[in-house]
Amino acid sequence: MTKVAVEGNDFLFKGRINVPADKSISHRAIIVSSFLTKVTKITNLLISEDVKSTINCFSQLGVEFKEINGDTCVKGTGIRNYLPPQNVLHCGNSGTTARLLSGILSGQNFSSQLDGDYSLRKRPMDRVKNPLEEMGAKISTTNGKLPINISPASLNGTEFNINLGSAQIKSAIIFAALTANSETKFRDKKKSRDHTEIMLSNCTENIRIENDAIYITPDPVVELGDIDVPNDPSSAAFFIVAGLINHDSELIFKNLCLNPMRIGFIRILQTMGADIEIMNLVEKSGEKTGDIVVKSSKLKSIQVVGESIPAIIDEIPILCLACSLAEGESMISGAKELRFKESDRIKTTVTELKKLGCDIEEMNDGMKIRGKEELKGALCESHGDHRIAMMIAIAGTKAIGRTIIKNAECVSISFPNFFESLKGFRKKIQS
Ligand code: S3P
Q1: Is the pTM of this model over 0.90?
Q2: Superfamily per CATH, domain 23-227
């Protein structure tokens, strides 16, 4: 139980900031590498608690991991040759691990059991169980949640027409479809992050994207080169806002994943008046990457509605902080999904920002925020949610006095050296 204190007005956000590798792409890099028996080298794999959960689960399935010169070398088994796990597959805090793994395990010829920590046990799993059952999976949940049991089953290619906007559900279905007995067609009216489709399209012809539909044929022939994971825009989001709301900032972020479904947040901030420049755009293995420069900015309010939500889902807590210091009244709506994340992020964001003096109101599907000039330091609680802990810390850099974050250790879920990085920008240390 770690308490961390942040002093307000003690930071100068100038220079280069190294944010960790992308969490979503890291999970998928491990999963797709497991489809090959040849060794895949993954450069810049995120080693955080969530990704360690995926590594541990795949180790139990017979996949081998070795660190060589800072890279992670993965020797897979093939999608039909995983070893039956001897123990429960523990997904820790990671919803992505639990849901994507459910897809991969549904069509195997062995049984498996998935479980998670206190927070993950509270998150809905029916949303993945139901579509997988439609394909023929044999899954039982505990009142719609973890632990779940998966029995051997043979899956049928299935046609999905959904309106969910969840990358986790889409990816679970795509991975399950690779073990089915015929083609699956998947269409989601709401777009969500597309790293699974991009990575698979790069290494196999068993996936085809036509118009707005994804076609998946089973038993992929995979030809995969090395994978180089770009840095995580969702982790960068915290320092982007730190740069914007504090004086005299000029922060440079290199090699960020700039997939359009991941930078909705940057686009929204730019509409609010943020000085964020995107440069050196290149495509690496199908993913857009590049550098950004962020400078202190005077922000104005914004209205964010339902259809933009999937592209900013993980950034809403920190966006609320930006709105709290913007001129005018902002509203975020159509974001009920936030209630099912690592914490109920509508409630936890509103509760903690209120403690810091923000004028923010909880709605059923979002929040209303009236901008202020000033925040005040407070004793805050992470609720065990990494993104809430980091949001509070960034608010603390701008608040008058001291902010204390209780249970701050959860930042290691996605950004293990977050507090060291933040400390590097303390004025006294820089001068
Ligand atoms: C993720 C998808 C998102 C996101 C989560 C990671 C992924 O969830 O919130 O942090 O890697 O697929 P949904 O798309 O299911 O909402």
Answers
A1: yes
A2: Enolpyruvate transferase domain (3.65.10.10)
